Amino acid sequence: MQQDNNPDQRSQNPYTIDYLNQIAPKQKQPLFDKTMVIIFGALIFAVVVFAGLMMFSSLNENPNSEPLLRVYLKVQKTNELATKYQGRLQNSDLRAINSGLATTLASDGAKLKSLLGSNKIEIPKAEKNKTPPKIIAQVNKDAEELDKTLDDAFLNAVLDRTYAREMSYNLDVINSLMKRVESSARSSDSKASLNEIIKSLDVSSNQFREYSQSDK
């Protein structure tokens, strides 16, 4: 029998290659091809690196925000106490020393506030009928304890010597914290301002110490 080589019949043969290609399941294209995966990965890496650099820059720019804020608050509270007890001190020499301290602390407070602003450190505020921020609560507690000690000394007629001793110690504490801030400061201007404050507080602390050790 002669084989039928009619091309129309061959095209309808269910086993031809063209027919098999037509009925074969289409291969799904991947949602992300290799190029897209590489680009996406590079973007994620860039974001992570950028975030890390920003964090590192922030730490370098402001490595001592808490100590700087604390020392500012302590200077403010100490100035309040110096003003409060100025009229209660009996000895004229001690009153002169304390008056000088109040002037010094007002100037130092202004310098520290400027440093806080230049370092973009916000000064927290204590709102009425609300729990104050932790750092304010801690500084207030220290100031209240010192205030109570001085008030008791006033009631017992031993304020002058007690005031000189306690104020000298309090200024030494502030200066110790100030030196930590200065050692961490990266700006030469900040270091210069902090060193000025340290020197002025040293003078006041020594004056109170000398008075407390004298026979006055």
The gist of it:
With 216 residues, the protein is mainly α.
Q: What does it look like?
A:
The chain has 216 residues and is mainly alpha-helical. The protein folds into two domains: 32-61; 64-212, Ferritin (Up-down Bundle). The protein has helices at residues 7-12, 17-23, 34-61, 65-85, 92-118, 134-155, 159-184, 188-212. The longest helix is centred in the first third of the chain and has 28 residues, at 34-61.
SSE layout and pairings?
Elements: H1 7-12, H2 17-23, H3 34-61, H4 65-85, H5 92-118, H6 134-155, H7 159-184, H8 188-212
Helix pairs in contact: 4-5, 4-6, 4-7, 5-8, 6-7, 7-8
| Secondary-structure-derived class | mainly alpha
Q: Give the termini separation.
A: 142 Å
Tally of discrete structural domains: 2
The CATH superfamily title of the largest domain:
Ferritin, core subunit, four-helix bundle
Low-pLDDT residue spans: 55-61
User: Which CATH architecture of the largest domain is right?
Assistant: Up-down Bundle
- By CATH, the topology of the largest domain is Ferritin
Instruction: State the order of secondary-structure elements, H for helix, E for strand.
Output: HHHHHHHH
**β-sheet strand percentage:** under 5%
- Strand count: 0
Mean pLDDT figure:
83
Please report the first level of CATH classification, the CATH class of the largest domain.
Mainly Alpha
Gross morphology is elongated
Q: How many helices in DSSP terms?
A: 8
Oligomer: single chain
